[in-house]
Design goal:
Elements: H1 28-36, H2 41-67, H3 76-81, H4 90-101, H5 110-127, H6 135-152, E1 166-167, H7 168-193, H8 198-212, H9 216-229, H10 239-265, H11 268-276, H12 281-296, H13 298-311, E2 321-322, H14 323-332, H15 341-370
Parallel strand pairs: 1-2
Helix pairs in contact: 4-14, 5-6, 5-7, 7-8, 7-10, 7-13, 8-10, 9-10, 10-12, 10-13, 11-12, 13-15, 14-15
């Protein structure tokens, strides 16, 4: 614009969109492959080697896993007839109830089956933003009460001792309730480690460093064996409860460090702005700092969740039959099906992978959803 007159550039001076090279991904699948798989000599060599390895491994694996496998309820003779050529998934059908529920009374196994549905439902409800309100606490309280009522009995149900609990419900109880109670404790420890009060800060630092410095097996052993030595004579705490408390205390230390990292990443100006508004400490943390810090900490927090879900298999050292141990014992104790233990372990791997993959994908969605303010 010159002297109030709008001037325009000639067409030749404008960049021609048609002359610009297309952005990545043009040309359909062939263009994508050329750009991503064959863009250079080294990339082409790696691609061809990968294809060759997959061509060598995948067809025999699929043939053993799927096409030549024995599916459904089949007699042992059917598996023996194809042994070495195909998988025997009939072992999963044969041992399914023992794998899922352990030594829980056979005629009462509908109760842990419903408990599994309730526990999975708690996970789903907690992940839906519509339920992120104070009423979620009541939902969790009802879910916890229903789970232990179904598993333990009472109020019209036959009592079942925790020594008879086993399988997937035990793994879910230890992991889900461990995460649910460890998370707020971890947040408090993270705030305590950043506190200006020396006693609180020192206690938080000592707790976090001591717990993170020992393996989970040690904590479980202490909770199961050593802790009982300090109790008064005649006082006994349930083995399942001791394992649950040990897992909560252990994972809380790791969550505290994950949350602390997120709090340290919050810009200092956010603290100063909250203080300038006259917000007291707890309101400043709950309304301003923690939401930002937790959003940053989602990846390490979910990583801790996945780790504790898998580490629940360590409770076998204190004689608790979790899902992994129930799968192992289901084939070990039956000599006829023992030779098909690989298929049983692959089934347990699939179950663990489903839960861990679901947590991973949910965390990725949550990161994208909460990052809309930065886009």
């Amino acid at each position: 614009m010159a002297n109030g007159t709008l001037t325009t550039l000639p067409d030749a001076a404008l960049p021609a969109a048609a002359e610009r090279p297309p952005s990545g991904g043009g040309g359909g699948p062939i263009g994508w492959a050329r750009e991503n798989l064959f863009s250079s000599t080294s990339n082409t060599i790696v691609t061809l080697l990968t294809v060759a390895v997959l061509a060598y491994i995948v067809p025999p694996a699929l043939n053993w896993l799927v096409f030549s496998a024995v599916w459904g309820k089949q007699p042992l003779a059917a598996c023996d007839a194809v042994r070495g050529q195909g998988a025997c998934w009939a072992v999963v059908w044969e041992k399914f109830r023992f794998m899922m529920f352990g030594v829980y009374p056979f005629d009462q196994q509908w109760r842990p089956a419903i408990a599994i549905v309730i526990l999975c439902g708690l996970l789903v409800v907690s992940g839906i933003k519509l339920f992120w309100r104070p009423s979620l606490v009541a939902i969790w309280a009802a879910g916890i009460a229903a789970t232990f009522w179904l598993m333990g009995g009472g109020l019209g149900l036959a009592p079942v001792r925790t020594e008879q609990w086993g399988g997937l419900p035990v793994t879910l109880i230890l992991a889900i309730f461990g995460i649910a109670f460890a998370f707020p404790l971890g947040v408090l420890l993270a705030l305590g480690r950043r506190s200006k009060l020396p006693i609180i800060r020192s206690f938080s630092v000592i707790y976090i460093e001591v717990v993170r410095g020992v393996p989970l097996i040690t904590v479980l052993f202490m909770a199961s064996v050593m802790f009982a030595l300090f109790l008064p004579e005649g006082v006994r705490i349930d083995q399942m409860l001791r394992a649950q408390v040990a897992i909560i205390l252990f994972i809380a230390a790791y969550l505290a460090e994950a949350v602390r990292g997120g709090l340290q990443a919050v810009p200092k100006g956010q603290y100063e702005a909250a203080e300038a508004l006259g917000l007291p400490y707890w309101k400043m943390m709950l309304l301003v700092i923690l939401p930002q810090g937790l959003k940053i900490s989602i990846p390490p927090i979910v990583n801790s969740f996945i780790s504790v879900f898998k580490d629940t298999s360590l409770v076998v050292i204190i004689a608790i039959y979790d899902f992994a141990y129930a799968v192992k014992k289901s084939v070990e104790t039956d000599f006829a099906w023992k030779k098909y233990f690989i298929e049983a372990f692959l089934f347990s791997i699939l179950i663990y992978w489903i839960f861990c993959f679901a947590m991973s994908k949910y965390s990725q969605w949550l990161e994208r959803d909460l990052a809309r303010g930065h886009r």
